[in-house]
Specification:
It comes from Streptomyces netropsis (Streptoverticillium netropsis). This protein is α+β, with helices and mostly antiparallel strands. Helix content is 37%, strand content 24%.
């Protein structure tokens, strides 16, 4: 996955925005939904990496199964993974799923009114 593909994948999600919130590190890019971060990256580094939110139990399994996935760099290592992209053996559809899972975890924690505004599929199944 290239930096442009990573950006497009993140921004294709409902309500996603791109921000550069760290004045001391202007190259660090965050992708947010409703003001909450679901992906963190530096699009200009090589190799390209992205930090993504993850269910803690799944995070451990992913790290054990894929050397390209490690505990989140400078983040809560229980809830975040850092994924190396580019020449890694992780297929793009798998990476897209990881990004969508991160987004879903963030949206699921939002108040119901915000989830409804996002037309989040998980909200449509709840009654």
């Amino acid at each position: 996955m290239t930096p442009d593909e990573l950006r497009a994948t993140c921004l294709d999600l409902n309500g996603a925005t791109e921000e550069f919130p760290f004045p001391r590190h202007p190259e660090v890019c965050t992708f947010k939904v409703a003001g909450k971060v679901f992906a963190l990256t530096t699009l200009t580094t090589s190799p390209l990496t992205v930090s993504l939110k993850c269910d803690p139990e799944l995070a451990v399994r992913l790290r054990a199964a894929h050397p390209e996935i490690v505990p989140g760099y400078h983040l809560n290592k229980r809830h975040w993974n850092t994924v190396t992209l580019g020449s890694s053996s992780l297929p793009d559809p798998f990476v897209r799923d990881l990004i969508e899972d991160s987004y879903d975890l963030v949206v699921a924690a939002l108040p119901r009114a915000k989830r409804l505004l996002l037309d989040w599929p998980g909200e449509r199944t709840e009654r």
